[in-house]
Design brief:
The protein is α/β, with parallel strands linked by helices. Helix content is 51%, strand content 12%. It binds NADP nicotinamide-adenine-dinucleotide phosphate.
């Protein structure tokens, strides 16, 4: 692809993520305009070839693709107020941490200005931008995702979840929830091991190895939850009730808070009381999903 076919990219917001993103576009040979509310954060990028805009509108006017890795919804809303006039015909990619409701509100506002809106969630750190270690989630305008897929992949591998603008945020929160449960389990375990003389740093590699094995178990869980068929599982509700019960008892006897695991015990107890003790562990899904 010849260099001149690369569209002009505007990056609004040069915080930790915005700076890494602007640098990635410069490294990939894109003409890149940058803007930040507070002056002085663009110096290193300008030295690498970025065009410094004195207003957000000036940056947006430079080209068709606008990437906004701003702090939060309020920052996007305020910045949008100053660029709405120059938005028609362009694409706005909002990468701020947001909510499905806020994504819907912005999608409507941007569409009302004759522009395309993509909502994004960054599953990455500044140092994993433009590597295979991070990935970004998108939802909203399909035309925008299709037209600018190549540019989006400059920042990170891109996953699209459909035209509902809030879908990327829902997936973002779903991934956060998956991580929180695992990490809280690790911290509880570390508290349990302290009295027996195992330091958290000693336990971490073992826990990481265990979690990798757990990750391999996900397709089976997904198959059972997706089909609603729990009869063939090797790890039953009753087996895991006994395991979680032992964990809670050991925690209490050691003076360690057991709060993290009590909700799971309650779910397993409910399944057993409903006559599903021989079903697979994954059948707690039946108690969790929307009814
Ligand atoms: N850092 C991470 O590891 C990470 C990872 C994944 C996702 N995220 C998400 O990515 C987004 C950006 O994070 P970050 O770490 O890059 O944040 P950051 O370093 O704190 O930068 C925030 C940016 O937003 C701008 N900003 C804040 N309020 C504004 C306003 N009212 N009007 C205009 N600009 C405003 C700041 O401008 P000033 O310089 O003028 O303050 C700055 O450019 C957040 O939603 C965050 O949750 C971050």
């Amino acid at each position: 692809m010849p260099e001149q076919s690369k569209p002009h990219v505007a990056v609004l917001g040069l915080g930790r993520m915005g700076t890494a993103i602007a640098a990635a576009f410069l490294d990939a040979g894109y003409p890149t305009s940058v803007w930040n509310r507070t002056a002085g954060r663009a110096d290193a990028l300008v030295a690498r070839g970025a065009i410094l805009a004195s207003t957000a509108a000036e940056a947006v006017e430079a080209g068709p693709l606008v990437i906004a890795p701003l702090l939060d919804h309020d920052a996007v809303r305020q910045t949008l107020g100053s660029i709405e006039r120059v938005l028609p015909g362009r694409t706005l990619v909002n990468l701020a941490n947001s909510s499905p409701e806020h994504a819907g509100e912005l999608a409507e506002r941007v569409a009302g200005r004759g522009a395309d809106y993509l909502d994004g969630a960054m599953m990455a750190l500044p140092e994993t931008v433009a590597t295979q270690d991070g990935f970004f989630l998108y939802s909203g305008s399909e035309r925008a995702f299709t037209s600018y897929r190549r540019e989006l992949e400059v920042m990170a591998p891109a996953h699209y979840f459909g035209t509902d603008p809030g879908a990327a945020e829902v997936h973002d929160l779903a991934l956060l929830g998956t991580g929180y449960a695992a990490l809280t389990g690790f911290l509880h375990a570390a508290a349990l091991l302290e009295p027996v003389g195992t330091a958290p740093a000693e336990f971490a590699p073992l826990a990481a190895r265990w979690l990798r094995g757990m990750a391999d178990f996900l397709p089976e869980l997904a198959r059972e939850a997706g089909s609603g068929s729990y009869a063939d599982g090797v790890s039953t509700v009753d087996l895991n009730r006994a395991g979680v019960d032992s964990l809670i008892r050991l925690s209490r006897n050691s003076g360690v808070a057991a709060d993290v695991h009590e909700p799971l015990k309650a779910l397993l107890d409910e399944r057993a009381a409903d006559g599903h003790g021989d079903d697979s562990f994954s059948s707690v899904f039946e108690l969790l999903k929307a009814r």
